[in-house]
Protein 1
Amino acid sequence: MPSHTWLDGKHVVGIVDNQFGDAGKGKFVNWLTDWADVTVRGTGGANAGHTVSIGGRKYFLHLVPSGITHDDPSKVHIIGHGVVLDPKCLIDELELLRADGVSWNNLRISHRASLVLPYHVLEDRLRERAASGSKIGTTGRGIGPAYQDIVGRLAITANDLLNPDILAAKVRRAVAAKIPLLQGYDQVDIHEIMLGLNGGKYYRPGKIFNVDEMITDLRLCGQQLSDMICDTDLLVQEAMKSRQRILLEGAQGFFLSYLYGTYPYVTSSDCSIQGLAAGAGLTMRDVDDVLGITKAPYMTRVGRGPFPTEMGGQKSSDWCDTSTQTSELPFARKATFESDDEFMLGMAIRMKGGEYGTTTGRARRVGWLDLPLLRRAMKVNGPNLALTLMDVLDECPVIRICTAHTYTGSKIRWGGQVIDGGHVLNVAIPETSVLERCTPVYQEFPGWLSSTSDARRQSDLPDKLWDIVRFVEEQTSGRVRFVSVGPDRDQTVSI
Ligand code: IMP
Ligand code: MG
């Protein structure tokens, strides 16, 4: 991957996703880990999924910062206090890495990171089952309930793993608080979910939880992780003082932020640069610059929630709810880039781009690049963009980019604005009831119809692709720093 003048003189750089996640942060994080002395994750948990390829071997990481695979003993990798940590999941990930000869001597875990425990996973899955029509489409990893327990003053932290007696007392207290809340759910659902969790190990019929078993395992986890648990905020702040280079590794995407996203169809952390900096132990003043990873000229969303440019609309959203890569294989012939049916075109893009979730295997919903949404994200994440996955549309004859939204619902008030049907919005209103009733205004572009995967310099990019890059810059007042034309680090054009 080429060096870039954009990094000159910078010490703290954040990589965030300007869309709904999966825009391809991993590749840039992996590259910038070469540059950085310290890499920090600050938000999310095992809901995140990164596929990192090295030496033909693929690693699926959820919690461990993706730079760990560099295996460079001089670099430090940190799981910051804003992350919710499933200790069992982390240990499993570390064991897989060890089996491949990747060491993690320099992994540090914030003592203030809150734990995701079996009752969080149970609550997450129960709520989704009970919600049926209004479910969020979560990853089922217990993320929402774990974050809720932080503000609900019931959280158990990584630090508690270092103190077995405190740990046991807190787990007992938390379980006692959960039981009455769980009585309202379908007991058959509880039975099924608990049996499926860790082979039913933490299930005790009638009492729901086998608390003793949970505590025993957590103590074991504590022994395994204890050398890594420390005050990482202090580590990060000291690294900053000594002018080390710090990379903040984002998770999920701007519109999944519970503060800025398409609420309630969001995750439970703030996936913007602000949430990332805070969760890593820094403030926005400490961040020198931000790179907003942006899929173009298509984008994706996984799980439920509004997505105005979705190809195939509701049909696509229903389809993706239950489809996986294997279940789509029989449609490979019909799903082509020439298809007039946008649902099939969306499927063609999904197949070409391998758009299936790393964590859940679900088919990702596919739509056209939405500039009103992007403009909204850039208000917080800033002007620097990396446009990714562009090679996926190499064979696409017609490309559409959404330049505005037309609101089609009845009169609604949004802050100080009154929005009537027919109102045109240049910056998206990230309010589900509005976005659900927005239709995209499109500008059409001819496809470039040539392979871009070997492009390394600006002059290697087809003119028609370049027109789109310039159009995105003009329309967002942004600055495209990189165009990514393939999963490999070299398949990147610096601009
Ligand atoms: P949760 O984070 O599991 O609670 O899920 C909430 C929403 O965020 C769902 O729509 C998920 O599909 C979505 N989500 C969570 N993590 C990711 C991710 O890493 N990539 C894309 N979507 C995600
Ligand atoms: Mg991912």
Protein 2
Amino acid sequence: MATALLRSIPESFRDAITGERGRPPDVELARAQHARYRDHLEASGYAIEALAADEAHPDCVFVEDTVVIIGSVALITWPGAPSRRGEIEPVAAALADRFEIARAGAPATLDGGDVFTLGNRTWVGISQRTNPEGAQRVGEVASGQGLGVVPVPVTGVLHLKSAVSPVDEETVVVTPGTVDESLLTGLRLIYEDPGERHRFSALPLRTGRVMVTANAPRTADQLAAKGLEPIPIDVSEIQAADGGLTCISVLF
Ligand code: CIR
């Protein structure tokens, strides 16, 4: 059965890192939104495994940044934000019985929000959080799994997946001006609506449907026009802390 690994939201989430577009999140509302997100995953056929919240790590709900699953390997990251490095061990322990554990470590920095795999290629962002050594480490693991690797410099947003959101096995939604689009050859591109800049994120599900952020309806309409089936989900308080739909779960 497919599994969704999540991590609960601590009270300290109000002190999560917020970038220039962010604001302190409302913790109670964030928990209610997180519960609905979890319910949607469960209704979509995922077995939920939720790690306990860690008050010492305000950003721990963003579990995606702590691990990159590539084939049979779980590559445990070394997060670019030093305050997040204590988040990784419970995730490694949770996955050790199901995956071969690999590590990224200094001088590499790596956030899972910078990596996605579609078909036989893995794209890895070089960003505020992932440095070239981190991208190289992803490349080693991906090539060991028979995948090609495409490094992508990212500007103006936190992670690659803030700039390029996979919505199915061949389609991505791109925020214009954040990446060199020639690095996305072979993918079908949809552009984030200019009035919804930095609001769209997505989580493709095994049902064939795709969760999308509720505050980007015009971008969702473009997906529907191309035959995808978007499900709007309100995660305003996750977005307040620079997150989106992908970063609060690891699906495998
Ligand atoms: C951070 O700055 O690290 C968190 N406040 C947000 C992380 C979001 N992660 C993601 O989109 N993969």
